[in-house]
Amino acid sequence: MKKILFVSFFSPPMGSGGSQRILKIVNNLKGFEKYLLTANYPSIRYKDEFLKVSDDVKIFRVYYKDPRLFFPKALLKLIKRKKKEEGGIDVIEEFKILKGGLLSKLKLSFFIPDEKVTWVKDASLEGKRIIKENEIDTVITTGPPHSVHLIGLKLKTLGIKWVMDLRDLWSDNPFVLYPGKVREKNRRLEERCIREADLILTVTKSFKERLIKTYDFLSEDRVKVVYGGYDENDFNVPPKKLKGFTISYAGSFYSIQTPVYFLKAIREIIDENEEIKRNIKVYILGPFEENTKRIVSSLGLENYVVVTGFIPHREAISYILGSSVLFLYLARDGFETVPQKTFEYMRAKKRILALVPDGECKNILETCGFKDSVDPEDVTEIKKKIKELFGLWKRGEDFKPDIDCVRKYSMDNLVDVFINSLKEGGVI
C-alpha cells in the first residue's frame, strides 16, 4: 500500500479554516497508508472539539514554540494597545483596510515567511524520523502557513517525492500587507521551494496561471488544480432556527477583506426602509471579530448585526442552513481567489449575496446558478441587491441552483481529482 506523509501545521482540534482542506482530503482518501505530521499548539485560541481525524491516520504532533509566549506580557500589551480613533472620519475610509497593527508588522518583518517558522526545525527532524522508520516516499506539505513548505524543502534531501499544496498565494497574496522588502524575501524563498517541489497543487486555476507567469521555469504539467469543496457529512446538522430575513457570513475579516461596504449598505437600508428594518438580522460568524465589532458600533448596528466570534464548524453550518441569504465577500484585489466557504454556501442551496469582483469565484457561482453578484465596493448596488433579495424572501419564492454543477465540488469528487493529480504528476 502506498504511503503518504501529510505535513500541516493546522489540524483538529484547532478550529481553523486552514485545517479543513487537509482534514477532508485525509479523511476521505482511501487505499493509502496515511501519516500526518502536525503541530502540538497548546496556546491555540480557537478549538473545535467536533473536528476529528479519521482513525486510519497515524498522527505525529510536534510542539510549537509560540513566539508570543516569550514576549514580556507588558510589551505585548503595549504593542496591542489600540490608537485612539480620530472623530469625523468617514466609516469607509476608516475601515476599508483592517490594519493588523504593530504586532502584525513585527511578525511579518522578523519571522519569514511567518511566525510558524519557529516550528520548522523540530518538525523537520520528526519528519525525517517518520520517513525513515516507515519507508515513506511521498510527502505533501500544505500552506499557509507557508513556513510548512520549508519542511518539505528539508525532507526533499531524503530523496522523497514532494508535493506543495498552496491553499493561498504566497509572495503575491493580496491579503498579506508585507512591509518594506519583506515581499521580495518571501519571493526568493517561494522560488526555492517551487524549484525543488516535484508537484504543486493549487486551489484555483487563477493561482496556477499566476505561478506559471511568475516563474518561467515552471511547466504546465508540474501544477495541478484541486479546488476546495464541501463534505456532505458536515451537513448532517439541523438548520439553526433564525427568525426574519437573515443574512449570514461564515468566516473572518482582515486586511482588505472588510465588511464595511456591506454594513454601510445595511445601515442605509435600515434608515430608509421600515419593513426591512423590522425583519432583518445579520450574523457574522468567525474569528478576528474585534474589527468587525468596531465597524458595527461605528454604524450603530448593534441591534441588527450579531458578531459571534469563533464558533465550531458544525454550528456555522447550522447557521448557514437556517439563513435566508448567505453573504460572500471578496475584495477587488482577490479576483484570483475562491474562498473555501463558497462551496459550502453552494451546497446549502441558498441564495448567495456575492460581493465579489469579476474572476474565478464569480464564474463558478454563476455557472452553478448563483447569480446575485455585486461589485464588492458599490454600496448603492449592494443596497439594491439586498432589497431585491428581501422581496424574493417576502414572496416565498423558491431558489433552485444547478445541483449537478454544485456536486462537482463535493469531497467525493475532489478526492478523485486529488489522486489523479498525484498520478499525473508522477509522485505516486
Overview of the molecule:
With 428 residues, the protein is of the alpha/beta class. It has 2 domains: 2-66 and 114-229 and 410-424, Rossmann fold (3-Layer(aba) Sandwich), CATH 3.40.50; 232-407, Glycogen Phosphorylase B (Rossmann fold), CATH 3.40.50.2000. Helix content is 40%, strand content 16%. It is built from 17 helices and 13 strands. The strands form 2 sheets. It has a 7-stranded parallel sheet, sandwiched between helices. It has a 6-stranded parallel sheet with strand order 10-9-8-11-12-13, with helices on both faces. β4, α6 (148-155) and β5 form a beta-alpha-beta unit. The longest helix is centred in the C-terminal third of the chain and has 17 residues, at 379-395.
Share of helix among residues?
A: 40-55%
Give the strand order, joined by hyphens, for the main sheet. 3-2-1-4-5-6-7
Any idea of the CATH class of the largest domain?
Answer: Alpha Beta
Run of helices and strands: EHEEHHHHEHEHEHEEHHEHEHEHEHEHHH
- How many domain regions? 2
Annotated CATH architecture of the largest domain: 3-Layer(aba) Sandwich
**Average pLDDT taken over every residue:** 93
Distance between the termini: 11 Å
* CA gyration radius, whole angstroms: 22 Å
Strand content: 15-25%
The count of β-strands is 13
The CATH H-level superfamily of the largest domain is: Glycogen Phosphorylase B
- CATH topology annotation of the largest domain: Rossmann fold
